[in-house]
Specification:
This protein has 16 helices and ten strands. It is globular, with a radius of gyration of 23 Å. Helix content is about 45%, strand content about 10%. Helix 7 crosses helix 8. Strands 1-2-3-5-4-6-7-8-9-10 form a ten-stranded mixed β-sheet, sandwiched between helices. By secondary structure, the chain is of the alpha/beta class. The chain has helices spanning about 5-15, 85-95, 115-130, 145-155, 175-190, 205-225, 225-240, 260-270, 275-290, 305-310, 315-325, 325-335, 345-355, 380-390, 410-425, 435-445; strands spanning about 20, 45-50, 55-60, 65-70, 95-100, 135-145, 165, 365-370, 395-405, 455.
């Protein structure tokens, strides 16, 4: 007998059946996660939604009754139903069905205008035409920008999903993302290139944005050679929330070594064939395209107040003392000269599509790497405060992995997260299932790679909208 939830889902699914074209099943070819992996999945399905978004679904031969609705990150608008083939194979081997959409292919790669709707449209289509019966559980699962999508699904998904796993998600929302990144870029331009006009907003193409990245990186490389330059770089990188733990380091430098912290941050932000700054700058035109204008600003920002809330303020102050520079003077210069304004309509657009309210309709588990160069772990601090303020703190749990890199999770860590949120939904309580020791034991038992869960509490998000920032809309 169907539960009331399953009955409701079945009705929604039947209403959507005619709107989705579905292909004939084909064998899933994802490689097994390990020698002990279960047999290949039973079927691979594809379809198209009315707005042109495509979707895919993979169903194992022995389905466990749970569907994972996967939201992919920023980039090409191609349907995906898992973060990587190894994780997909491991989940299918454990009986999970997988589904996910491309989002609307006719717009920006920052596809928040359509992503949540396309994901729920995919869910209706898969329930109507693909699954052998109504699911017992539907769990949202998202990565990076897709983690923002899964957080929004957790906010608005009552009656459609039962829980959410958000990984490396932009859970502080797009306006915060835009603003703290701009704070740092503005500091680089104003303090390292005084008197030079450097375009920081309203790019018309990724090529134009990358030219700015090159200008700023060249200035940063020169600054890194002097004590004064390193102090100012530390200030700019504090605004961007750059983690002081670089690839190749066994552990982050201690706070007692500010010079080593700055050196690690420099490596994280400015080095490599396609640096973190390159990625940040090249992505901004897509956000502007989606918002219909620029939704980021510096006007009205008190940069001294912003730094006062930063977990890196002691590092910055120490390096300024070493260099013999006045931190107060530089912060005063940044505040006095800040004149970048936002387009009000663009701000409203991102507030509507790309900023979680903190309200939760279902339980949510967030996973984040400690050193995330693109979506800093401090976003989780901001999000937890929002959820508590909304009165839903009991529905949220956050867990941390001691690794370097954006979304640098092993399949073991991701599957452990799925098992944890599934357990919470099944039992109605968290217990210790999302504690680091419990997640670590589960991950180790899976033989799917590294298990690095650790106890951790991220510091405040530097440059958050509640920390010394005015509205800035022109």
């Amino acid at each position: 007998m169907r539960t009331p939830r399953a009955t409701m889902r079945a009705g929604l699914a039947m209403a959507a059946a005619l709107a989705a074209a579905v292909s004939v099943p084909a064998a899933v070819t994802a490689a097994p996660a390990a020698a002990s992996a279960a047999p290949a999945a039973g079927g691979h399905y594809t379809g198209t939604l009315p707005d042109g978004a495509t979707w895919i679904a993979d169903v194992p031969a022995q389905w466990n009754g749970t569907l994972l609705l996967y939201s992919h990150g920023f980039g090409p608008l191609t349907a995906a139903d898992a973060p990587d083939p190894t994780t997909a194979a491991a989940l299918l081997a454990r009986g999970y069905a997988l589904a996910g959409s491309s989002y609307d292919p006719n717009g920006s790669e920052w596809a928040l205008d359509s992503a949540v709707g396309d994901q729920f449209g995919t869910l209706r289509a898969v329930e109507a035409r693909v699954l052998p019966g109504a699911p017992r559980q539907v769990l949202a699962f998202g990565t990076s920008m897709g983690g923002l999508v899964s957080a929004l699904e957790a906010q608005d998904g009552a009656g459609r999903i039962d829980g959410a796993l958000t990984t490396c998600g932009i859970v502080a929302g797009a306006i915060n993302l835009n603003n703290y990144q701009l704070d740092g870029e503005y500091a680089l331009a104003r303090l390292l290139l005084p008197g030079k006009q450097v375009q920081l907003v309203r790019f018309t193409s990724a090529t134009q944005a990358l030219a700015t990245a090159t200008t700023l990186q060249t200035a940063a490389a020169q600054a890194q050679q002097t004590a004064a330059g390193r102090a100012r770089l530390a200030l700019a990188m504090a605004f961007i929330n750059v983690p002081p733990w670089a690839a190749g380091q066994a552990a982050p430098p201690p706070p007692s070594d500010p010079a080593a912290q700055e050196a690690a941050q420099y490596q994280v932000e400015f080095t490599g064939a396609f640096s973190t700054l390159d990625f940040i700058e090249s992505g901004r035109p897509s956000i502007d395209q989606a918002a219909g204008g620029s939704a980021t600003w510096t006007r009205g920002v008190d940069f001294a107040a912003v730094l006062a809330h930063s977990p890196y303020r002691a590092e910055v102050a120490a390096l300024y003392r070493t260099a013999g520079l006045s931190l107060r003077d530089d912060l005063g210069t940044l505040t006095r000269d800040a004149d970048i304004t936002a387009d009000p309509g663009a701000v409203r657009s991102l507030e509507r599509t790309s900023v979680p309210t903190g309200r939760l309709a279902v339980p949510e588990l967030d996973l984040h790497t400690i050193s995330d160069q693109l979506v800093p772990v401090q976003q989780e601090n901001y999000y937890a405060r929002q959820v508590r303020a909304a009165g839903d703190g009991g529905l949220l749990r956050q867990a941390y992995v001691a690794s370097v890199g954006h979304c640098n999770f092993s399949p073991a860590e991701l599957v452990a997260g799925v098992l944890a949120i599934s357990h919470r939904v099944s039992t109605g309580r968290w217990g210790s299932v999302a504690d680091p020791d419990s997640l670590e034991r589960t991950a180790l038992s899976l033989n799917l790679g590294a298990a690095r869960f650790t106890g951790y509490h991220p510091g405040p998000l530097t440059g958050a909208t509640c920390a010394g920032r005015a509205t800035g809309a022109g």
